[in-house]
Design a protein that fits this description.
- The structure is a single chain.
- The protein has 506 residues and is an alpha+beta fold.
- It is built from 15 helices and ten strands.
- The chain has three domains: 76 residues, no CATH class; 159 residues, no CATH class; 184 residues, Helix Hairpins.
- Pfam families: GNVR (PF13807).
- It comes from Aquabacterium lacunae.
- InterPro entries: Bact_polysacc_biosynth/exp, GNVR.
Amino acid sequence: MTARDLLQVVFRRRAAILTFMAAVVVGVYASLRLISPTYEAQASLLVKLGQEDIYMPALPSSQFRTPVMSVIREEQLRSEASILTDPALARQVIRTLGPSAVFPGIDVVHPWYTPKGVLQRLTWMYNALEDHFFPLSSQRSLEDKAVSAFQRAVKAEALKSSNTLEVSMRNKSPDAAALTVNTLVNLYLQERVRIHQREQSDFFARQLAQLDRQLKGTEEAVESYRSTHHVSDLDQQRSAQIAALNDAGKRLDDTLVAMAQQESRAAVLKQQLQQMPATMQLAGGESANNLALSELNKQLADVARREADIRQRFSDLDPRLEGLAEERKALMQLLQDQQAQRVRSSETGLNPAHARIRDDLLQTEAQLAGLRRSAASLKALQQEIEGRLERFNRQDAQDKQLTQQLDVLRSSRQLYLEKQEEARLAQAQAAARLGNVSIISAAARPTQPVSPKLWMVLVGALAGALLGGLGLAFLLDHVDDRIHQAHDIVGTLGLPLLAKVPELAA
């Protein structure tokens, strides 16, 4: 079939084409008049990094705590979008505004002969079937119906590569769409505060009261322990005892060295005394042993000088004073004996050298006895100091355990104080409606419908009418068995065409 044949078909069926196009145009016009336009109200929200995205560890391993921040923006935006489309929040919006305010005409019963009435009856029939087969899942109340329609109409989407959320709603009423979106955003801001709200402050108050009782009991236990065991500063007391132990050890070493020297001197004096005769030839007469008395007085003066030096440099309780006292007592006894003794000079008498060596030996033995007592006292003092140090170590372990428990309670109390302040700040922010979500632009009353789009409807109607008319024309021509052209003779009758006789005008 040539283009001329196609044009002939179109021209021949022009009435059908025009009729079909007119019917399509009338139908589209009627649809535009009957179907209400749909408007879309939209609000934009900015989601920032807020306090709920920061987590502070509750039990730090050290005194410095590092906060943990969540910076996964995509997941956070999806979470916020899920809160916006939550069924509970949708029901709260419906209860706040009312089903008729959100969807005007939702409670109107249309006449059965109208298109909306027919659709309404069909819906009732479907609901009846649903109630029969699934009685627990059917939506019976007007509020449930409005909530279901609200969830279908509301969308919350996150814009790519941004921290922005777009909340939109489609409605037949532009005013209802804007009002509903703004109400949804306001209720969402309140609801997210409740969702992200941390522990209540009364919980921290109870914990703080319990910690205060434990802290007071531990402080009393520490004070009682230190008062009972006379613990003021264990480190200082231990240092003082260690210094006293070192001093006692040094003095004991000096005493042992002096003992060794005195023992050596005593051994030498004994050997000299054995070799020296006790008597010697004298001219005669009677006299006192002035040499021995002088030597004993000199030794007594030396002992008194040493005692005064020790009392001045150390203390009256120094163990060496006991040895010096014993030595002074022995020297006084020797002095009394010498004063009572008279030397009778005859042909033989006392050897002065022997007496002097004997006196030196007695003095050395007295000093040695004093040194031995001093060494014993110093050893006893060392044992006593070591016992004190051991007791201090046990007390230090117990004191450190109590102090550590006290520090843990104080750290926990400080932590709960910070948590209580954070909870108070969160409640204050909730009361002031401060958060990390800000409204960029509230929903305004839309002026242009989103559907139907007039230019798309017109273009689609014209294109559909034209194509439908052409299709109808070719269909009618195909089912028509009349002969209109020369090739119809060949195709219909199967006879060859011999000639064409033009129609002559009358």
